[in-house]
Amino acid sequence: MKSDYFSGDVLADIISAMKEFENRNAFVINDTPYTYRYFSNLVNDFVHALQKEPANIIGIITEDRIEVYAAILAVLLTGKTYVILHPAFPNDRNLTIIKEAGIELILGNKAFIATTSWCKGIKCMNFIGRLSGNWTPIDCPADSRNPAYIIFTSGSTGKPKGVPISRSNLNVFYKAYSGLGWSLDCNDRMLQMFELTFDVSVVSLLYPLTLGACIYTVGYKDVKYIKVFDILDRYELTFAAVPPSLLQLVSPYFDEISLPSLKYLVVTAEASPVELLTKFHSCAPQATFFNLYGPTEGTIYCTSYHIPMQGTIKQHNGMIAIGKPFQDMESKIIGDDGFPVGCNRQGELWISGPQVMNGYWHDKKKTDAAIIKEADGKIFYKTGDICYYDSDGDLIYCGRKDSQVKIQGFRVELSEIEHVARQYFASKCNTVALVTTIEGNQELMLAIEQEFNDITGLKNHLKEKLPSYMIPKQIFCIPCFPLNTNNKTDRKAIAQMIENKIKDNGNK
Amino acid sequence: METNEILNDLTAILREVVKNPALTITLETKASDVDGWDSLTNMLLINQIEKKFEVRFNFREIAHLANVGDMCRSIQVKTNK
User: Mind telling me how many Å the CA of A469 is from chain B's nearest CA?
Assistant: First the structure.
């Protein structure tokens, strides 16, 4: 449901909500509530301070505190660009981001700034204790050519790529996202658990503010899976977007979890296993489940799939479908020969439309590699994801392009091996199949997320279901899979753990 | 079991889980005070505690373990039953 004052401009709608709902809570952070009036006052204070600054690219040091969320909104309202700097990132990564983005001003906590090497040599503004105490309405933002934000994602060369998302990208996304049929308003209580360096945090922060709803946050220092479910339970949240790996961590406790107030569960950020969601349904029987998909380059999400809890869930190798493109977005599936393929044929997903970025920040080479400009001027972003369209026009996700590997000349989908291995454990544990290079040979490996002794039993199961070239050379038990800062299963870290184990065994 | 005895065992488990052999903890130590004590290591920590002390925590109990002191008290109550 769109708010009564829905204008299609996310910032204008937030300002309207701030005025209409000033006495309601905008945030609950570590059990402390903050009203829209308080938040608005803080934003207003930052806006006035930022307007005096010539800098356009503003770094914000993330913390789980109201000032950080106010700083983000203030930067957007002044027509500037925000870039999140993460205290837990290595110094070199933050320094690279500062340099690559061209950050000229950093907003953060004075105590942290004073002790942090990467803040040196750059103008910094303390955002704690700035509150003027005089509430004055904020004006609607002026148009700005500056990107709204730049998110830095991992690059294959190790150097992060800057994805600049314009105000126009963001507003087109906002219109499409609002049109997904949510029944949400100022009475809703909504979760924000994502790192601010990850773009799902943008919608988890801005969308509730357009409704006058209350946001419940989880910080990077929290033990996430515990904090999320504690908040969902104690505050009877009505909306949550989470990565499936978080549900997986809690899965041993599903029979103890009851979330009758949850109206919506969005799974996002990585492929969602059907069995996991099916099992979680009993924890939140009233909730409608959505799988939302999108690369950062296409502004947060660009396809949606309403996961039917009654009836058949569309899937491929146990991974839930990603559904139909957002309004105004276009997609096509490109085969190995570079041409579009028909229904039920796999290929790389390309997306086009007003949510797609124009190119990586100051990086023509990477832009040229990822963006295709067609003869009619239409721009397509090559997602690197393998999908196909089914006969209903739903996109079925099959895995990453780089997860399709060639072993002994055979094309192998790693997700298929993972799916078959999960079946052996009745879908009660995570599995990751990957390829490592040992003495120049590419070998399939399988990691199982639990302590487990019957490797022979598992191997026999795999041999019954898979051709011989798809049988992993070795199987490793890892009690808990590492997660990256976006809470996705960290496949690179698992590969490294396996390579280390192989080296250790070789040295013994 | 005495609190100090449990604390010593917890220290050994946590050192192993976060791969920091020099780690020292007190009853007031929280997850946010220890580098590497995140969702993943918390899961491993609970597994190790359950094995070592032959106890079982339900999810609500885990959610209410705000610091090491809470863990010690909870283990004490469970092992004295």
Answer: 33
Write down the pTM of the prediction: 0.87
The runs of H, that is alpha helices, within A199-355 are 200-211, 224-234, 244-250, 274-280
Rounded to 10 deg, the angle between the A167-178 and A10-20 helix axes is 60
Within 10 Å of residue A380's Cβ, how many Cβ atoms?
Answer: 20
Which is it for the CA torsion A142, A146, A147, A152, positive or negative? negative
- A-interface mutation test, from B16, B30, B33, B38, most A Cβ less than 10 A away: B38
**8 Å CB contact of B39 and A256:** no
Q: At CB < 8 A and 24+ separation, what contacts does A455-464 make?
A: A457/A424, A458/A421, A458/A424, A461/A420, A461/A421, A461/A423, A461/A424, A462/A417, A462/A420, A462/A421, A462/A424
Span A218-243, mean pLDDT? 94
Is B1 within 8 Å of chain A by CB?
Answer: no
Residues A304-319 have a mean pLDDT of 94
Nearest residue of B to residue A247 by CA position? B39
Average pLDDT over residues A174-182: 96
Q: Say yes or no for a CB contact (<8 Å) between A480 and B40.
A: yes
CB contact under 8 A, B59 and A253: yes
In this structure, is the dihedral angle defined by the CA atoms of residues A405, A411, A412 and A413, taken in order, positive or negative? positive
Averaged pLDDT of chain A: 90
Look at B58 and A256 and tell me if their CB atoms are within 8 Å. Answer: yes
CB A96 within 8 A of CB A4: no
What pLDDT, in 10s, does the model give residues A384-410? 999 999 999 999 999 888 777 767 666
State the pairing for strand pair A474-477/A441-448. parallel
pLDDT tens digits for range A340-379: 999 999 999 999 999 999 999 999 999 999 999 999 999 9
Measuring CA to CA, which residue among A379, A2, A394, A382 is closest to residue A174?
Answer: A2
CA distance B38 to chain A (A): 5
**A456 close to A475: Cβ distance less than 8 angstroms:** no
Q: Do B39 and A225 touch (CB under 8 A)?
A: yes
**pLDDT tens readout for residues A54-66:** 999 999 999 999 9
Report DSSP letters for A276-318, one per residue.
Answer: HHHHHGGGSTT-EEEEEE--GGG-S--EEEEE-SSSPPPEETT
Q: Under an 8 A CB cutoff, do B59 and A229 touch?
A: yes
